[in-house]
Specification:
This protein has 154 residues and is an alpha+beta fold. The chain has helices at 3-18, 53-58, 61-64, 102-106, 113-118, 133-142, and strands spanning 22-28, 44-50, 69-77, 82-89, 93-101, 124-128. The chain has a six-stranded mixed sheet with strand order 3-4-5-2-1-6.
């Protein structure tokens, strides 16, 4: 992970620690594994679990308390309970926050099928105030891919 991304990740983690309504913060995607798949163009992909979901969608001020924001928007696929706030911070640093409602995460009916895919390989836990990691382990251990990655020849 490039130094600027690492510095921003530290700011985000510090912010999350001070917020009572954030219970969990996990790093996913290319920056979360030990295979060094991230490069100078990699973004930061995070899972943020909160019991104040509307705050992180309706308000943008919380981002400014982390660092200077150039642009932010919300992206969703509501039919599969997948929501994220995308943000470009100063110097073009791109962060995707997958926002998860804690109540739905704790629901045993599997309310987040998309988490099976986005969390299936690796996740680095940056903050876990309420032992949410157990719920993510459930997704990671029970979510099976229904397709295979292409081989190098393919």
């Amino acid at each position: 992970m490039k130094q600027a991304n690492s510095d921003l990740l530290n700011k985000i983690t510090g912010f999350a620690k001070t917020q009572k309504d954030i219970q969990f913060l996990g790093l996913i995607g290319s920056s979360s594994n030990d295979e060094s798949l991230d490069d100078e163009y990699s973004d930061i992909d995070l899972v943020l679990v909160t019991d104040s979901l509307k705050r992180y969608f309706a308000e943008e001020e919380w981002l400014s308390s982390i660092d200077e924001v150039w642009v932010t928007f919300i992206e969703s696929a509501a039919d599969i309970n997948y929501w994220e706030r995308r943000c470009v911070f100063s110097n073009g640093l791109d962060v995707d926050f997958v926002l998860v409602d804690k109540e739905k995460l704790l629901d045993s009916t599997g309310a987040f099928p998309v988490l099976h895919d986005i969390c299936r390989k690796t996740m680095k836990v940056l903050l876990d105030k309420d032992n949410c990691r157990e719920q993510f382990n459930r997704f990671m251990n029970t979510g099976r891919k229904q397709y295979t990655d292409p081989t190098q020849e393919e």
